[in-house]
Amino acid sequence: MTHEHNAFGIRIIGERINPGFKSTRAMFENKDLASIQELAVKQEAAGAFALNVNIGAQAMVDQPFLVDVIRAIQAVVTLPLSFDVPTTELFALCLATYDRARAGGELPIVNSITEHRWDPMTLYGDHAFRVMVMASERVVDGVGMNNKTADEIASTARRAALRLRDDYAMPLDHVYVDLSVSAIIADTEGLNRATLDAIKAIGSDPELKGLHMMGGLSNIGQQLPAKAADGSDLKHCLENAFLTLAVPHGFDTVLGTPWRGYAPLPDDNYVLGAYRNFLEQTGSNALRAVRKFYKA
Fold first, then answer.
1. pLDDT at 6
2. Fold adopted by 11-291
3. pTM of the model
4. Which of 98, 118, 116 has the alpha carbon at shortest distance from 108?
C-alpha cells in the first residue's frame, strides 16, 4: 500500500480509538459501536498497519464493553489490533477475544510492557502476540527509574529485547521498542537528543537486527504556536523533522493518526534547521532555541 502520508515507508499504528480524543471519548460514553467501527474503517483506509485499542478507565469497570469493542472493530477491518489496557487480566481478556483469522492470521500486539511491568509476559505461553516495550524506564534494585540518557534508553531496550528473544523465543521482528518523544517546549535536559542518539545506538547494534523502533509523536509540539516562523504548520513539521532524523537509523513505526501525511523534510526546511539547532542546546539555551521555531 502506498499512501501519500507514508512517504517514509513507515508503519502507522492507528491511535484514534482512545479516550484522549474527545470525539472518541463520547463514542465510549454512549457505547456507540457503529461510530467506533467507522473510525476503525477510516484508519484502515488511510493506510494503518494496525489499530491501537484503548478504552481508558472504562476497561476496569465494564469488561463486556471492552469485548464488544474488539468484536465490533474486527467485524469491519482486517488489521491486527494492539491492546492498551492497565492490567494483565485485561490483556488476557483482549487476547482471548481477538480473532486472529479475521486479521489475516496476524498476531495482536500487547501495548505495553516495561522492565517494571513484565507480568503480561506470563500470558505468552497461552497466546502468541507481538509486544511493545517501553524503553523510557529501567529497574534498579527493584525500583522503576526514568531513563534520561541515550545509554540508559538503549541499554534498557537491548536488555528487554534480548530477554524476550532468549527467555520466550520471541522473534525480534515481533518486538517494538517504544522510545519516548518528549515535548520540546520544556526539554531543557536534552531528552530529544537522547532519544535520537539511542535510536542510532539500537539501529547499529548487530544483535538487535530485525527489531522495530517506534514512538508516538503527538507530544513533540505541545503548547507551541500553530505556525512556524516561515508560516508552516509547526507541530506537523516538527513531527516530520523528528522522523527525518530518526527513520534513516531504523525508526520504522509510529503510533499516530494515519492521515497525518508524514514525509521527509528537505535539508533547507526552516523547522528542520531550527530542530537541529535545538538538539545542540541544553538548559536555558534550549528554551531560547525553542523560540526560533516561531520567531524569525
1. 74
2. TIM Barrel (3.20.20)
3. 0.95
4. 98
